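Here is the promised in-class demo. Please do not try to memorize the tokens; focus on the logic of going from shape to residues.
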């Protein structure tokens, strides 16, 4: 009887209870995670990257998962911006000035930190995506930062005239177009992850293309510029909704919720190159 009690105590100390990970018996969290072996589907769901057999080390087991931080940061700033572009509750494109702090700190810093942590645990794809999107939000914050007065530089101090000038709008449009092409690359690569991430990258790509067309139209003085900007905002909103769903799925997995939201696993659809 004493031997049976000792065996049970040893199992609980090691983070197991009734053959399952122990979340309630006070075991050290690092020791809990070290007893768990993730399936390829679970690894992809948590880290948005298929498990690569060429990866070595156990850093994903030792540290927290940075992926939800990147998705949360992305959702907050994109949902806010899409509301501005759609004119929600009286907002418009100028409302971005009141949200510039979120673009700097939530979007830029949040995505950069999460990307850096993905780098340290060996997840190349999320690292590249998060860091480049962090840079995007920093660049957008720079564009709307009042103290930088970027639009005023195009018209001898007249910010309104500069914002309507062809060089300014064409420059912004080219940047959005190139970033949309980058998102196309990401979307193709996401075919190795899950359908929700493909949706997110595909809709943000369309948003960027439409916004680029809108800025080109503003520079030409075209009447359909507002429609293009609004359409871009609609795709950005659709993208943010996919992001919120993915965030729920990631956090449900992180806290062990009994509900597992489907994300449409694609990690086994395209086999990895040997």
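The designed amino acids, position by position:
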């Amino acid at each position: 009887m004493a031997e049976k009690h000792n065996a049970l105590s040893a199992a609980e100390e090691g983070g197991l209870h009734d053959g399952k990970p122990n979340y309630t018996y006070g075991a050290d969290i690092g020791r809990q995670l070290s007893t768990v072996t993730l399936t390829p589907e679970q690894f992809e769901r948590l880290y948005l990257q298929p498990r690569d057999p060429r990866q070595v080390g156990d850093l994903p087991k030792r540290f927290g998962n940075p992926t939800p931080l990147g998705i949360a940061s992305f959702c907050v700033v994109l949902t806010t911006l899409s509301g501005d572009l759609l004119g929600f509750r009286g907002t418009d494109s100028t409302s971005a000035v009141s949200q510039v702090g979120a673009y700097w700190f939530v979007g830029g810093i949040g995505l950069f930190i999460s990307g850096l942590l993905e780098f340290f645990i060996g997840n190349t794809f999320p690292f590249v995506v998060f860091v480049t999107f962090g840079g995007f939000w920093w660049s957008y914050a720079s564009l709307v930062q009042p103290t930088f007065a970027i639009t005023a530089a195009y018209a001898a101090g007249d910010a309104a005239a500069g914002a309507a000038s062809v060089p300014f709008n064409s420059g912004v449009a080219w940047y959005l177009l190139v970033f949309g092409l980058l998102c196309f690359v990401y979307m193709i690569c996401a075919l190795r992850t899950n359908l929700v991430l493909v949706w997110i990258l595909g809709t943000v790509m369309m948003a960027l293309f439409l916004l680029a067309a809108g800025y080109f139209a503003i520079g030409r003085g075209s009447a359909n510029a507002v429609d293009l900007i609004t359409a871009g905002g609609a795709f950005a909103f659709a993208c943010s909704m996919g992001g919120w769903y993915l965030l729920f799925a990631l956090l449900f997995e992180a806290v062990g919720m009994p509900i597992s939201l489907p994300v449409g696993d694609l990690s086994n659809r395209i086999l990895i190159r040997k």
